[in-house]
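pasting for the record
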Amino acid sequence: MVWAITIGTFLGTVVAALLIFFILSRRKQIREALREQRIEKRIPAEVGLELSSLNEPLIYEKAITENASRHGARIITKRPWRANDHVLVRVPRWDEPARARIAYCNALPGDECAIGLQFSFVVDDWVISRSDISNDERSGHPFRK
């Protein structure tokens, strides 16, 4: 009986030590993941935009937002994009394209992907009302009236 308690205590100590070692070895990744939380709540918004890669070959796609905030947006695309890549985002109402980081890319049912965009600056005119979206935009042509 004493041997069983000794072996159980030893194995518990080894598992605890391995768990602590694993957590300490992943400390940087855990800290980054905790920092990646959204700064503010996103609201539903359908805004047409153009997304293009900064890498060679140049990839270009038109997409629609699902929700947005002043710091980012979730968009629906037809192709997968790589997390942590930087892209140019052009919204017809903006004067200049904006640079954004792809925070995540999740596959959706069908052939679509949900992409999280994170801007390094505050976008005050990102969210527009539904009445500002033209019928062409709702049908897949993301340009304002």
